[in-house]
Design goal:
heterodimer, A: about 350 residues, alpha+beta, Rieske Iron-sulfur Protein, four-stranded antiparallel sheet, 11 strands, B: about 550 residues, mainly alpha, Cytochrome Bc1 Complex, Chain C, 3 domains, two-stranded antiparallel ribbon, 20 helices, 10 strands
Chain lengths: ~350, ~550
């Protein structure tokens, strides 16, 4: 019985396959019985190098020259590497080294390619040859044999029969990678991201300092129309400087109070100091620094995706993909006349996130 | 090679090479070949593949450019790993580049500067790597367009199209991770944008960003993590997928364009040994050499001008590498205000919408072969590449897709377009938003009409020949231009193509018309309603008689 099994299944398999193979659907393709006939390959055209031994010799010489040029290029690249070193502090020497070593290597590579192709096109036999295609699907015998392999494998292992055994195996294989996924948890510290994204290092009394020099800014330094790129004065002492700066960066501008006081939301009247306002520099779209200030329109422009914010209207979005206004940092001055923060921002800065509100 | 002095070189070469006593060189190669074959059975492989036929066409080289630039990337990238330090530890730069001396920066950026200014040939290898990467993605894109427009994705090559698509996505991922490694100001801003986009994903966004950056952006781990992706994980997957891609190409054999002597069941071309090997091998050196030539003369990604990453400054006119442009442009074209709060959570549609549109676009590209196969119902193998005009609807869809992509891509430079042409940024943005929809539509309609017109012209040429430029005066005084008939070889190129008609809805075995069939019929009508058939023998004969 078992002996016969293979034969019958092979026979049955090939019967199905033959039927399918004969009736491969052409779909909605139009098969014309009146189509023109393929005229067959056109006669071969000999090249000049096939007909004239002189031309052939000349072509061969050209290729030899090209390959020789390549060798010269390689040698030159090594020579340039040694003869044109980089002198510390001398940018020209870097450029010269780059240029000459590069040209040497290019001279080594290009003639090999040009020579090989020239050789193939002019000297190698160029008759077009014909090879028959065979259908991609295996022959009926092969397919039947393959099906038989699976059948015997299933039979001998009992994979299909011993269902509980098989299902526990599937369960085990599915469960095995799970610890690996769980172990990715420590890619980040255990702290709560929402907490971290929601606060910056600004707090009541933090002086506003110039980004770069780190010097504190006096209210009297901020003339009408000027703009300052600002960081917290104590940023250099922060444990994670870049991370804090990425949230705390602020733009400071001075406007005429009459340009914007009528637009102030109740409760924010004292967030500016004589027309000096501070807004988060981090775009509420996807977090680029909103670095471009247009003085006479009081518009801020994000150079990444062109969101524009109107400073006279509490940094409301007037164009571009951002939705929310830039958060305002409430400021005042201390006893020495230096600008200080009244508190942290009253909302998270930067791009929106799921748990934001 | 000197034996080929006469025109009958082919017939004389074979006997002389076997009769001549073996030279030392040929005895040596023989011994080596024997040694290897006795241990690997490689003679079978050589016999099978050595004289395999490859059809020739310039457009078949686009995929080759991709592979060869990838080899250039591997070689130059290996050189760079010998010197690059993928660490974000703060260091003070003490290298040769004076303007940045003493400045605090990450070790990654400092080592990228050292490669540029203190390692001989380092700048060259950086530029070879970057130029080759740009060429790699570009050539994959063009190769995909070639395959699309010639219908070379049809059975039996649908799966290889999907693998090729995966390679395209991997190439972009490789590009972006590599771009981020030097930790300069521009690449840091690119990561900043990725961080902002990730945070906009509902439910998992916040935590994904947190895990990705190991805490808050930028953190101190991202460069190291991208490095392992860039030089190990992604290349390993890419090489494996590339291997399967090439293997399937060998199994399926290459497509060829219609031509005299070429049929759906043969391949006409040159054998691997020696002509194709010489041409393809030579072409590798040309691609590599050209990349080196560009790298030695044209600066790319001058990271020393940008400075180390700092979350505060950014310069106007920032742009990603070209292949990420379409994603950046999609972000830019979102109208204001696409964000709301619902159920106490923030829904950042301004980020989700572009992600969905780009994702949908890419999924459509990936599944197109299956969609078209479903519409035609054609289960036969196709080895003759279509001329784009002979599949008007497909070509129009392709043109629409190219336009859609191109508008998004142009949008990534909206600010530069505005400043260069003295336009407002608002005007440019609105124009691009309109173009994204209407330009795509227009490209579809125009392309379809152009294809049908070209097909009609082909028919006319086959039936009536080409204008000879010879004017003849008839006895009656009438002037006519003599048309010259095409020879049968030229004619065959114009008439050998597949023609489909719209699907007729018919009840199935149970006497029912299924919804699936109705939908398929709608698509089928859309595809094949306007169609022009190839000239038949009868038409040609009746044309000849009058």
């Amino acid at each position: 019985m078992a002996k016969h099994d293979g034969e019958t299944s092979a026979a049955a398999g090939s019967a199905i396959e033959k039927k399918l193979a004969r009736e491969v659907s052409a779909g909605t393709a139009v098969i014309s019985s009146n189509a023109l006939e393929n005229p067959g390959l056109p006669p071969h055209q000999p090249r000049v190098t096939d007909l004239d031994p002189k031309k052939e010799k000349a072509a061969q010489r050209r290729v030899i020259w090209l390959f020789t040029l390549s060798i010269i290029g390689s040698v030159f690249a090594i020579y340039a590497y040694i003869a044109f070193p980089i002198e510390p502090g001398n940018l020209t020497s870097t450029r010269v080294n780059n240029l000459l070593v590069g040209l040497g290597i290019a001279t080594a590579l290009l003639p090999i390619g040009i020579g090989a192709i020239y050789w193939a096109k002019n000297l190698m036999k160029n008759d077009e040859l014909v090879e028959e295609r065979h259908g991609t699907r295996g022959t009926e015998e092969t397919r039947a044999a393959a099906a038989e392999v699976f059948r015997v494998g299933n039979e001998e292992s009992g994979f299909g029969r011993r269902t509980l055994l098989r299902n526990t195996l599937i369960g085990a294989v599915v469960a095995a990678p799970l610890p690996g996924i769980v172990m990715l948890r420590d890619l980040a510290p255990s702290a709560d991201p929402v907490e971290a994204f929601s606060r910056t290092m600004w707090k009541a009394g933090t002086r506003l300092a110039r980004d770069g020099s780190g010097t504190a800014i006096k209210a009297s330094d901020v003339t009408l129309g000027s703009v300052f790129h600002v960081v917290p004065y104590d940023l250099p002492e922060a444990e994670h400087k870049l991370e804090e700066k990425a949230k705390a960066a602020v733009l400071l501008m001075r406007l005429k109070p009459e340009d914007f006081v009528h637009n102030i939301t109740p409760g924010r009247e004292d967030w500016h100091y004589h027309g000096i306002v501070a807004y988060s520099k981090i775009c509420t779209h996807v977090g680029c620094p909103v670095a471009l200030y247009e003085q006479h329109t009081h518009h801020l422009l994000c150079p990444c995706h062109q969101s524009q914010f109107d400073i006279t209207r509490e940094a409301a979005v007037i164009f571009g993909p951002a939705k929310r206004p830039l958060p305002q940092l409430p400021i005042t001055v201390d006893a020495e006349g230096y600008l200080i923060a009244q508190s942290d921002f009253h909302e998270p800065v930067g791009p929106s996130f799921w748990e934001r509100s | 090679m000197t034996a080929a002095g006469t025109t009958t070189a082919a017939t004389t070469a074979t006997p002389t090479s076997t009769d001549a006593p073996p030279t030392a060189g040929s005895r040596f190669t023989g011994a080596v070949a024997n040694y290897i074959d006795e241990r690997t059975s490689i003679s079978g492989l050589v016999k099978e593949l050595g004289r395999k036929i490859f059809p020739d066409h310039w457009s078949f080289m686009l995929g080759e450019v991709a592979i060869y630039s990838f080899i250039a990337i591997l070689l130059s990238g290996t050189f760079l790993t010998l010197f690059f330090d993928p660490s974000m530890v703060e260091v003070h730069y003490e290298g040769s580049y004076d303007p940045l001396k003493g400045i605090e920066m990450s070790a990654a950026y400092a080592s990228a500067l050292d490669i540029t200014f203190d390692i001989r040939g380092g700048l060259l290898m950086r530029q070879v790597h970057h130029w080759a990467a740009l060429l790699f993605v570009a050539s994959i894109g063009l190769h995909m367009l070639r395959v699309f427009f010639t219908g070379a994705f049809r059975k039996p090559r649908e799966l290889n199209w999907v693998i090729g698509f995966v390679l395209f996505v991997l190439a972009m991922a490789e590009g972006f991770t590599g771009y981020s490694l030097p930790d300069d100001l521009l690449s840091g801003n690119g990561l900043r944008i990725i961080d902002g986009m990730v945070k906009g994903i509902p439910v998992i966004g916040t935590w994904t960003s947190w895990l990705l950056f190991g805490g808050e952006f930028p953190g101190t781990v991202i460069v190291g993590r991208l490095y392992v992706l860039h030089i190990m994980l992604l290349p390993a997957i890419l090489i494996a997928a590339l291997g399967v891609h090439l293997l399937l190409m060998v199994i399926n054999k290459h497509t060829q364009f219609a031509g005299p002597g070429r049929t759906n069941s043969n391949v006409v071309g040159v054998p691997v040994m020696p002509v194709f090997a010489a041409k393809a091998g030579g072409f590798f050196f040309i691609v590599f050499g050209t990349i080196v030539l560009i790298a030695s003369t044209v600066t790319i990604n001058p990271i020393w001008n940008y400075g180390p990453y700092d979350p505060s400054p950014v310069s106007a006119g920032t742009q990603p590498d070209w292949y990420i442009g379409f994603a950046d442009g999609a972000l830019r074209l979102v109208p204001p205000g696409w964000e709301f709060v619902l159920f106490d959570h923030t829904w950042t549609i301004s980020v989700l919408a572009p992600m969905a549109v780009l994702g949908g676009f890419l999924v459509l590209v990936m599944f197109y072969p299956f969609i078209e196969a479903w519409i035609t119902g054609d289960k036969r193998e196709h080895h003759i590449a279509d001329r784009p005009r002979n599949a008007p609807t497909r070509t129009a869809i392709g043109a629409a897709g190219v336009t859609f992509y191109a508008v998004l891509w142009a949008a990534a430079s909206s600010d530069i377009i505005a400043t260069h042409f003295k336009l407002t940024i608002e005007g440019v943005t609105y124009a691009l938003q309109a173009l994204l929809i209407f330009g795509t539509l227009a490209a579809y309609l125009i392309t379809k009409r152009v294809c049908l017109a070209l097909q009609a012209k082909d028919r006319e040429i086959v039936l009536h020949g080409v204008e000879s430029g010879r004017i003849v005066r008839m006895p009656g005084g009438e002037y006519i231009e003599v048309h010259e008939k095409l020879d049968e070889y030229d004619r065959w190129r114009l008439v050998d193509f597949e023609d489909y008609k719209p699907l007729m809805i018919r009840p199935n075995a149970k006497g029912k018309i299924t919804v699936g069939q109705r939908v398929r019929a709608v698509f089928s009508r859309w595809f094949f309603e306007d169609r022009i058939s190839p000239v038949t023998k009868g038409e040609l004969e009746s044309g000849e008689h009058h």
